[in-house]
Amino acid sequence: METYLHYFILFLGLISISKSVLSFSIWVWGSFFRPSKNLKEYGSWALITGSTDGIGKALAFELANKGLNLILVGRNPSKLEETANAIHERYRGKMFIKTVVIDFAKCPPEEIVKKIEETVDGVDVGILINNAGLAYPYARFMHEVDLELMMCLMKVNMEGLTWVTKSIIPRMLEKKKGAIVNIGSGSSATVSSYPLYSIYAATKAYVQMLSKSLSVEYKQQGIDVQCQIPLLVATKMTYIKKSSLFVPSAETYSKASIRWIGYGEICVPYWPHAIQGFIIRALPEKLLDHLLFKYFNGMRKRGLHKETKLAKMK
């Protein structure tokens, strides 16, 4: 009896090791060797929200480099024009670019839907990238988040993404193909909690679950829905100016992001981020919660001090 038990335990161990080896092999293949898809097969146009800064702007340039026409969505008309001109200048006007001014924090749902539907009417939109996002200026407890900021977080991070997606899906269903990429966050996918940024992390958890569910709904209809998980990227939103291996520039991250479009429902495109995530998840949950709270509380105190100092100067 003990011999059979011994073999059974050994068998379970081999299965566990085999699964780990297989998962690691798939990750290596996807991160370093798998060719990216021909994105033009989805359609000749790509729509990007939050396209005038950070990851969204870098993705717009990468998609233009792949030969796609662009629909750039943002809230600032002058920055939209500046971005469109920069793309035209780099690629010598080889693509068409449309711009749409939408402030997700202020526009009512029906106006968002109307603007998007009017813009994509008669246009072969194959790729939608929901990148527009908003975060806290600095860490704070939930009761310290003012109502205006709270509403803006939910409107931009959840509602705007939802209404744009709802506007685009019928077009993709008509031709039975398309790719939707929603930019999530390590705050909801990598760590056990995200204290002092609770509402932001919760909005990104919504993005992740929506993406997973829509993928199941529309996969058989030829639509690839994906949530990409970045950790820290050197952008204006993160207030990080200097890039490094584990904190890439938006341009470096966007190259990895493009390679993963169409592969997987939830993914971490930038391989150093995936390694970071593996290490983070290996830590005891209570320890991780404690470290995050301590770190973000320090950020909160510095933020409050800076805010108080600026108020006195005024």
UniProtKB/TrEMBL annotation:
Entry keywords, A to Z: Membrane, NADP, Oxidoreductase, Transmembrane, Transmembrane helix
Pfam families for the chain: adh_short
Domain of life: Eukaryota
Gene Ontology CC entries for this record: endoplasmic reticulum
Primary location group: endoplasmic reticulum
Subcellular location(s) of the protein: Endoplasmic reticulum
Family: Belongs to the short-chain dehydrogenases/reductases (SDR) family.
Protein name in the entry: Very-long-chain 3-oxoacyl-coa reductase 1
Organism the protein comes from: Nicotiana attenuata (Coyote tobacco)
Gene: KCR1_0
